[in-house]
Amino acid sequence: MKALEFIRTALFVPGNRPDRVDKAVRTAADVVIIDLEDAVPHSQKKQTRAVVREKIMDYQGRPVLVRINALDTEFFQDDLNTVVVAGLACIMVPKVETVAQIQQINRRLLKVEEKKDMRPGSVSII
């Protein structure tokens, strides 16, 4: 993806703090990474996903990445299903250790993109 070729500065912001997300997007950081993983308590994951999805759609034209929960968690698929929308540049998946895990993540991401009539591969994976 063209917008992500050269990332000099990345600003992580907790997804459960929409005020901080708004502030981060107004900075000069090359990308904003909205965190759904460690920064968000388990009890707030569901409502935070919906907020993050709205923020992604609000910031069309600005590279926004989302750090979702790990593949082996109960939150992974719901994260994908909710935040993969037009305008999302990339998902960052923590705790990936093998090529097989990346391949599985890619297959699952492609299914979500297809279900949402998005171009396959339009969302990158870090």
TrEMBL record:
Coiled coil: none annotated. Signal peptide: none annotated. Its cofactor is Mg(2+). GO terms for biological process: oxaloacetate metabolic process. Keywords: Magnesium, Metal-binding. One of its GO terms (molecular function) is magnesium ion binding. Residues 8-117 form the HpcH/HpaI aldolase/citrate lyase domain. The keyword Magnesium applies. This is HpcH/HpaI aldolase/citrate lyase domain-containing protein.
